[in-house]
Amino acid sequence: MKVRKGNSGYIRYEKKKRLLVTLGMFVMPLLILIAGLIICKGDKNNIFTVIAVVGCLPGCKSMVGLIMMMMQKPASRETVEEISSHAGKLTMMYEMYFTKETDSLMVDAVAVCGYEVVGYTSQAKNRKQIEECEKHIGKLLRANGYKTHVKIFDQMKAYLERLDSLNRNYEQLEADANEKFVPDERYPDLSRDEMVKHNLLAIVL
């Protein structure tokens, strides 16, 4: 069963999918190489060898993506369940792996409510890494026309309290953010929160 990006279980699903795809990409070049050796009676210096080597390039590219995904630790079931119980009306995403030129960070969960984008990570090395990720997300969202206040927590209790606060003030926060919101012509049916989610999903692995 396919698990979409932003849903719990996505990392595990992608690991299995990318493994199968990568293996499949190497099977065809291998078959071509074997066929060439058989046809040319064991002589590896033939056109089939060249085709097989070139045919490995897509597989090598897929392997890079597989290795990056294999290095990721998915959010635990307990973490997802605890956060989900406080999600309320908020637009939620899970297992969001944000990458940039110098660093990357797995964010277990992200909530969107009006101008507020709040995440929780259990995998940050230090506070500086979190702050850099906050700046990265905020910059990309602003570049796409969405003013936001991005905050990533590394303490579960504080994050759950923030979710509860957003839910208590949900109507006011949404009203403030949507006052000047103009739907995107490409996605006229999506709300502002859904458009922010759409943009966030576009920048994660």
Estimate the global geometry from the Cα principal axes: elongated
Strand content: 5-15%
Gap from first CA to last CA: 19 Å
**Ranges with pLDDT <50 over ≥5 residues?**
none
Main sheet: strand order: 1-2-3-4
Count of structural domains:
2
Can you summarize the main beta sheet?
A: 4 strands, mixed
Average pLDDT figure: 93
Please give the oligomerization state of what you see. single chain
**Helical/strand content category:** alpha+beta
List keywords for this structure.
2 domains; 14% strand; single chain; four-stranded mixed sheet; 4 strands; 205 residues; alpha+beta
Can you walk me through this structure?
- This protein is α+β, with helices and mostly antiparallel strands.
- It has 2 domains: 10-70; 77-202, no CATH class.
- It contains 8 helices and 4 strands; from the N terminus they run ααααβββαβααα.
- It has helices at 10-39, 47-55, 57-70, 77-84, 127-143, 156-168, 170-178, 192-202, and strands at residues 91-99, 104-113, 116-120, 149-153.
- A 4-stranded mixed sheet has the order 1-2-3-4, with helices on both faces.
- Strand 2 and strand 3 form a beta hairpin.
- Helix 1 (10-39) runs antiparallel to helix 2 and helix 1 runs antiparallel to helix 3 (57-70).
- The chain is elongated.
- The model has no long low-confidence stretch (mean pLDDT 93).
